[in-house]
Amino acid sequence: MVSPMAPSPRVEILARSGINTIPKEYVRPEEELKSIGDIFAEEKSMDGPQVPTIDLEAINSDDEEMRKKCHEELKQAAMEWGVMHLINHGIPKELVNRVKVAGREFFELPVEEKEKYANDQEAGNVQGYGSKLANNASGQLEWEDYFFHCVFPEEKRDLSIWPKNPADYIPATSEYAKQIRALATKVLSVLSLGLGLEHDRLEKEIGGMEDLTLQMKINYYPKCPQPELALGVEAHTDVSALTFILHNMVPGLQLFYKGNWVTAKCVPNSIIMHVGDTVEILSNGRYKSILHRGLVNKEKVRVSWAVFCEPPKEKIILRPLPETVSEAEPPCFPPRTFAQHIKHKLFKKSGDEDSLDGKKSSH
């Protein structure tokens, strides 16, 4: 039994209303329901493949052997999985904690307070507080509210839409964005070297310091009375170059690996990193942009903080780099601007959910 749909309210309001059944717009198609299980049981299971954990302590080490080992492990994880837990990433625990506290405190404000920051998706303004609008024929919705905004470079930010409450939101998030930007440079350098390129090549190709933009999306997944029927975020790949994710240690992330959904463990003091479509395209598919989704549960609110590192929308043509193309390995992707790539993904109807062309955008 599924309740009829009222006009799409915030999911938080819906979750708190005491409903026992979720509106039909949140129920996934029959085919998809078969693969949605109990996220807590799946997170505890040690069966099957596990998302790799990469220790970055030696990423810039003077000890050549240790540095090479770290680089090789990162490269292999990017080629095989396209997602990994990063530990010893160099971002102070105290700063990470401040970011989490500030984001959590914002979402704990009354809904009417958060609505002051509401975005206007229909007018094309996605920055601010929002919930997914049904943008497909089935009218399918996701069990989450979010806050989305540009966090770097500083001159591209619109601080007028950043939360003023809690007071530490702007300082903590600004500092975290700077540190993630520096981490992105380190990772891109290793991935460039892994393709046999100059260490700064990938970063230059996606806009460099000037034009690579960092967008933060705080995902807030309320408790769901029927988690076996819903998804917090439907299956998609990230359009970004790289995505860095913090979470509140409540499981939910699943990766589509070798034909099965694999649940990511909650690794303390780690940052999850995804390779996005942009790097997959530039590397001609050597690095993978993996299909992933978010499950929800009855018992605990889940919150995640995703930072998407994105190239400029029109300035750069994304295509496999010449060094990654040969007669044996022709280009797997046609040349497109970042904007064209996003549009192509949004409107592409695909029967093959594991090919890049059919995969959906992250935001």
From TrEMBL:
An example molecular function term from Gene Ontology annotations: metal ion binding
Keywords: Dioxygenase, Flavonoid biosynthesis, Iron, Metal-binding, Oxidoreductase, Vitamin C
Pfam families: 2OG-FeII_Oxy, DIOX_N
Cofactor list: Fe cation; L-ascorbate
Keyword Ribonucleoprotein set for record: no
KW Ion transport (keyword) present: no
Segments forming domain Fe2OG dioxygenase: 212-311
Family per record: Belongs to the iron/ascorbate-dependent oxidoreductase family.
Name of protein: Leucoanthocyanidin dioxygenase-like
